[in-house]
Amino acid sequence: MSEVLVGIVMGSDSDLPIMQKCADALEEFGIGYEMVVSSAHRHPEKTARYARGAAEAGLKVIIAGAGGAAHLPGVIASMTLIPVIGVPVAIEPLHGIDSLYSIVQMPPGIPVATVTINGAYNAGLLAVQILAVHDERLQLKLKSYRQSLAAKVEEKDCKLRDKLAQCKRPDAGDNQ
Ligand code: RP5
């Protein structure tokens, strides 16, 4: 079992279907993580305990996701020097615009690196990139991941070209 380097915190278990994508990204790169439900407003003591103990527990990055008035990432960031990545989770009735603004609009002093609404997979990748700064093996894995993205683009380009080649161009005479 890999050492736990990333803490994935979510405001409620209802965030899990989205936040699971952080775990998927971390697993692809063999990074150890833990998942925790905590809430900045429903259980502030637990949230504070987690944030204050994170560095000592060996965590290097925290990913925090929440919906609505999503202050969880900012509150955690205020209590630790570990970089915090915020995931705005889309819930009714504002579909994530509320959580996006709550997380991204941190006033100067306490930064939270914010990804897109429901952008949990990218949050996981960003955590991997942060860890890769001092890890050449991870850097190589990230390079090969990027190469696989480029290969997929080439594959789609080929498919499109094949498809277009099969379309018959109308004769010039058709327009006359
Ligand atoms: C937030 O409230 C959570 O992050 C969740 O996105 C939202 C709704 O929570 P539940 O009512 O589903 O527990 O704090």
Quick summary of this structure?
This protein has 176 residues and is an alpha/beta fold. It has helices at 16-28, 44-53, 72-77, 97-104, 120-132, 136-166, and strands at residues 4-10, 32-37, 61-67, 84-89, 113-114.
How many discrete domains? 2
Order of helices and strands: EHEHEHEHEHH
Runs in which pLDDT lies below 50 for 5 or more consecutive residues are none
Spatial shape: globular
Number of DSSP-assigned strands:
5
- Overall helicity: 40-55%
Report the C-alpha radius of gyration, rounded.
Answer: 21 Å
CATH fold label of the largest domain:
Rossmann fold
The assigned CATH architecture of the largest domain is: 3-Layer(aba) Sandwich
3D structure, described in words:
This protein folds into two domains: 4-134, Rossmann fold; 137-168. It has helices at 16-28, 44-53, 72-77, 97-104, 120-132, 136-166; strands at residues 4-10, 32-37, 61-67, 84-89, 113-114. It is α/β, with parallel strands linked by helices. A five-stranded parallel beta sheet has the order 2-1-3-4-5, with helices on both faces. The protein contains six helices and five strands; from the N terminus they run βαβαβαβαβαα. The chain binds 5-O-phosphono-beta-D-ribofuranose. 5-O-phosphono-beta-D-ribofuranose (RP5) binds at residues 10-12, 14-15, 39, 66-68, 89, 91.
